[in-house]
Amino acid sequence: MVDNHSYSFFGQKVGLIIQSSSKNELHIFFRLIKCKNDGSWEKPSIGEGKVIKFSLEEIVWIIRVLDKETNSWSSYHTFKDAKTQISFKWENGEYNKLWIHIGKYSKVLEYAQIKILELLLKHFLKEKIEFATTPNISKKSDSELIENIIVQEEIITNKEKSFLDMKHREKIDNSSEIQSVNGTIKGETNKALLIQFDNGTEIWIPKSRIHSSFDKNRNDNQKFIIDDWILKKNEVVS
Question: Is the pTM higher than 0.85?
Answer without folding.
Answer: no
